[in-house]
Amino acid sequence: MANTDDQFKKVISHAKEYGYIFQSSEIYDGLSAIYDYGQNGAELKKNIREYWWKAMVQMHDNIVGIDASIFMHPTTWKASGHVDAFNDPLIDNKDSKKRYRADVLVEDYVAKIEAKIDKEVAKAAKRFGDAFDKEQFLETNPRVVKYQEECNAILKRLGQSLEKEDLADVKALIEELGIADPETGSKNWTDVKQFNLMFGTKLGASAESAMDLYLRPETAQGIFVNFLNVQKTGRMKIPFGIAQTGKAFRNEIIARQFIFRMREFEQMEMQFFIKPGTQVEWYDYWKATRLKWHLSLGMGKDNYRFHDHEKLAHYADAAADIEFKFPFGFKELEGIHSRTDFDLKQHEEFSGKKLQYFDPEENKNYVPYVLETSIGLDRMFLAVFSNSLQEEDLGDGKSRTVLKLPAVLAPTKAAILPLVKKDGLPELAQKILEELKWDFNVTYDEKDAVGRRYRRQDAAGTPFCITVDHQSLEDSTVTIRHRDSMEQSRVAIDDLKSLIEKEVNVRYWLQKMNDL
Ligand code: ATP
């Protein structure tokens, strides 16, 4: 098995080599935890955003989308709790001078114990073969049970200490567990302190009249402050949702995992406004629905799991993460939060305006409860990209690097390749390209032997290669090659559009949600 560090390095270098992700301002040595999307990355990101938007907005009659500004009135962030409570507990190592998130140090310690459990499971599965019952093993194997209890106890204590803002106990926990600086091994820690993650800036020309603003740390508040605008102008009836995608900014303490944790990133959020008292049922509904959306992309059921929060944010009465198995282990990809009426009530209080809904069935006004689904677009990009990048053994000592992106998300759907650069083949290939580009993002490549061109497209993630040869001139057929199976078949040029369409259209993929 490839070392996970090596695998992750490969993901990063492949993303650069194939025009997916570049370090921002690279010629000036970059900016930490800020990245630019290249020609292929921009397309993949756009396709993921669209896949989410279609599933959430287009396919739900009662969900609409908005596009709120990044700058918001500063009182927004007082009302939301971000000015007072949007903090991460940080700890410095006195020897290495490196800064860490104290909660992440503890969580990583727990992840190591969990990895031991996984190892025991794998060993037992091998030993028992078909007779292996994973559930039973997890419940009865004494070593595994002990590991699990240890994890639970640590996470519980961490959750409680953070909840109580008992930062001294978080430090004590780190010391008791003997957690060392992951880079240097030193255990010489400072106290744990809180650090606010919002970026500040100023609005206005003169120093005296300038107003202190924040770059929004989440897109959700743009939805809450527009709740009544949308409800009234859209004549929305509860339950209904408001969705949006857009940039968010956080001055993250640790930013060492490529696009997993960025200082400038994009969120895709949806706030679902419901009748108070119905939150448990909607919480379950959105947990299940969002998981189905992920599974529809076919990236492997075992790569997802739910993690229910021990420590709840100040606004939530229930919260769970959908975690994905990244190259560095299971980590949060999306959050599902039952936010109660916290946000709307806070905005009522700070703005002095009523943010209520008149329920015609109940014949009364109330502040709706909110169920939120919140996913990082860049994190989703990393999940898709890292899962798709595979090194495939082709036998005879040969191998290929292939980026098996779900075809619906692939930046380029097909490459048109003339077998040789003469005899009228490039002209016919160009003609096919001109026709297909009305419907799909397609590319043309005539350089190098066709085998090398196939490899190049495999590595770039293009699902189809269409090769134009001499026979094409005679009978208007071409070869279509599938990236994943490498199978080739001869088809009529006139059929290309429908063949590609069938495998890349959003409907085909999203409908899989219904079968899950
Ligand atoms: P974490 O615990 O990883 O810091 P969070 O719980 O603070 O994340 P939320 O505030 O719930 O995250 O944000 C919702 C989603 O936004 C996350 O599930 C994640 O996908 C994404 N996200 C949050 N912070 C970042 C970041 N710094 N870079 C990229 N994506 C992020």
From TrEMBL:
Claim: Electron transport is one of the keywords in the record: no
Binding-site list for ATP: 250-252, 260-265, 332-333, 376-379
Residues annotated to bind substrate: R101, E218, F265, E266, Q267, M268, E269, E372, T373, S374, I375, G376
Swiss-Prot/TrEMBL catalytic activity: tRNA(Gly) + glycine + ATP = glycyl-tRNA(Gly) + AMP + diphosphate
EC number(s) from the headed UniProt entry: 6.1.1.14
Alphabetized Gene3D superfamilies for the sequence: 3.30.40.230, Anticodon-binding domain, Bira Bifunctional Protein, Domain 2
Aminoacyl-transfer RNA synthetases class-II family profile domain span: 198-418
Keyword Ligase: yes
Compartments where found: Cytoplasm
GO CC, alphabetical: cytoplasm; extracellular exosome; microvesicle
A GO biological process held by the record: diadenosine tetraphosphate biosynthetic process
InterPro entries on file: aa-tRNA-synt_IIb, aa-tRNA-synth_II, aa-tRNA-synth_II/BPL/LPL, Anticodon-bd, Anticodon-bd_dom_sf, Gly-tRNA_synthase/POLG2, Gly_tRNA_ligase_bac, GlyRS-like_core
Superkingdom as given in the UniProt entry: Bacteria
Keyword terms, alphabetized: Aminoacyl-tRNA synthetase, ATP-binding, Cytoplasm, Ligase, Nucleotide-binding, Protein biosynthesis
Top enzyme category: ligase
Single annotated GO MF: bis(5'-nucleosyl)-tetraphosphatase (asymmetrical) activity
UniProt-listed Pfam families: HGTP_anticodon, tRNA-synt_2b
Bilayer-spanning residue ranges: none
NCBIfam families: glyS_dimeric, PRK04173.1
Family, per entry: Belongs to the class-II aminoacyl-tRNA synthetase family.
Description of how the protein assembles with itself and partners: Homodimer.
Function in brief: Catalyzes the attachment of glycine to tRNA(Gly).
Protein name per UniProt: Glycine--tRNA ligase
